[in-house]
Design brief:
The complex is a heterodimer of chains A (about 325) and B (about 100). Chain A is an all-alpha fold. Chain A has eleven helices and no strands. Chain A has helices at about 1-25, 25-45, 50-80, 90-110, 120-130, 135-145, 145-165, 185-210, 215-235, 245-270, 280-305. Chain B has one domain: Orthogonal Bundle (Helix Hairpins). Helices cover about 80% and strands about 0% of the residues of chain B. Chain B is built from three helices and no strands. Chain B has helices at about 1-25, 25-50, 60-90. The longest helix of chain B is centred in the last third of the chain and has 31 residues, at about 60-90. Chain B starts with a helix and ends in an 8-residue tail after the last helix. The chains are: A mainly alpha (about 325), B mainly alpha (about 100). The interface between A and B is large, with 96 and 82 residues. Chain B: It is found in: Cell membrane.
Chain lengths: ~325, ~100
């Protein structure tokens, strides 16, 4: 009963925040709603028994997206982009009607799902000992659906390439993102000194327990990226220039190692991304650590953005 | 029970996000609305995962892992969209077009 009440409260709050976001007049208000929405969505994922997703949603959906969107809202308020004309009242009503129809159709599909639900949980449980991992989600990510994870890590690298390609003329090869003056006092200066050591330990813990409990590389990488961004915004850490070979290696090493192990599996075991028997845990751990480092660097670079026009060196 | 509830919430978020994407003219609000739409799709998928609980797991781990991947990819796409928008605003700075 209390569970149902909690679900109803979380659901109503998420719905109210989503409606507020779409109705908001300013981008700032909408972004503030979006951060709150991300945190509440994390709670919804806990209620759905998906703690792995809850951690990711809180760290990436609310944390990193929040930093990105708040910065963007501030810069767009200073230099607005030409916007299209809003649709008239008749067209708005028509759009609302069509969107409501889509929502009702999906809702009807949810209500008419087959009973019992087809599930792969039993097969995952039966084959989990072969992966030497205790966390079923990690088993799926690193073993059964390793191809998805490999493609996903490549997408993150490509996104960094895409963001860097937006460098304005004259900025190529420079420091990523806007320059931050060193903050000497105030909450940011304090937190940027206080949090990173704690955050790094928590991230490594989440990475390490991810084998057997909720956690893993994405969550750990998001926390590490947040720690780097915190030090960057306080002017304590200057990121390397995007021309730096070491930085480029750091971004691509995880996906590269994963790909190399996949090809080695094709040669040794006859199937792409097959792990040789007895080596599974060691290889999975190697990929997890390399991917954590690469994804952390890539996520931070994505939030920092491309270099600015003038080279400040 | 909570699976159905959150599935319906996901359906509502898809509708709200789609509306924001089509009806709001501000580009940043459109990016936010697109994220709402994505969040709704993930929730619908998560509700299906929850219904597939079994073998001692609180939910079917296969959709859960794919949602996890999806959140990271959605974030990468969002950053790219936001950076495109910021570049557009920087480009328009020197010009003084009529609105």
């Amino acid at each position: 009963m209390t569970g149902l009440l909690a679900d109803l409260a979380i659901g109503a709050a998420i719905l109210a925040l989503a409606a507020g976001m779409v109705a908001a007049r300013s981008a700032f208000t909408a972004t503030a709603f979006f951060i709150a929405y991300g945190l509440l969505l994390g709670l919804a994922w806990v209620r759905l028994g998906a703690v792995d997703i809850a951690l990711t949603e809180a760290a990436i959906g609310a944390g990193l997206s929040g930093v990105l969107l708040l910065t963007a809202a501030a810069r767009l308020a200073a230099r607005p982009v030409a916007t299209e004309r809003a649709p008239g009242p008749l067209l708005t009503a028509l759009i609302a009607l069509c969107c409501a129809a889509v929502a009702v159709a999906i809702g009807a599909a949810i209500l008419s799902l087959p009973e019992p639900t087809p599930s792969l949980a039993a097969e995952v449980a039966a084959n989990l000992p072969a992966t030497a991992l205790g966390n079923p989600v990690a088993g799926v990510l690193m073993s059964y659906r390793a191809l998805d994870t490999l493609l996903e890590s490549a997408v993150v690298v490509l996104a960094v390439v895409g963001v860097w390609s937006l460098t304005p003329p004259g900025g190529w090869g420079g420091f990523p993102g806007p320059f931050h003056l060193r903050v000497e006092s105030g909450p940011l200066a304090l937190l940027a000194r206080l949090l990173p050591p704690i955050g790094i330990v928590i991230a490594l813990h989440i990475l390490w327990v991810g084998k057997d409990a909720p956690g893993g590389k994405f969550q750990a990488a998001a926390i590490l990226a947040a720690m780097w961004l915190l030090a960057w915004m306080a002017g304590l850490a200057t990121p390397p220039r995007i021309a730096s070979r070491r930085l480029r290696f750091a971004v691509s090493a995880g996906a590269g190692l994963f790909l190399a192990i996949g090809v080695a599996g094709a040669l040794a075991e006859g199937a792409f991304l097959a792990y040789p028997a007895g080596w599974t845990k060691a290889l999975v751990l190697a990929v997890e650590f390399a991917l954590t480092a690469s994804i952390a660097v890539a996520l931070a670079l994505l939030v920092m953005g491309p270099p600015e026009e003038e080279d400040r060196a | 029970m909570s699976a159905t509830l959150y599935g319906l919430l996901g359906a509502a978020l898809v509708g709200i996000g789609l509306f924001g994407l089509l009806a709001r003219p501000s580009p940043l609000l459109r990016i936010l609305a697109f994220n709402l739409l994505g969040g709704g799709v993930f929730l619908v998928f998560g509700a299906v995962a929850r219904r597939g609980a079994g073998a001692g797991f609180p939910g079917d781990p296969v959709p859960q892992a794919i949602i996890l991947t999806g959140i990271v990819v959605a974030f990468a796409a969002t950053t790219l969209a936001v950076m495109l928008l910021l570049r557009l605003s920087a480009e328009g700075e020197g010009r003084s077009d009529p609105p």
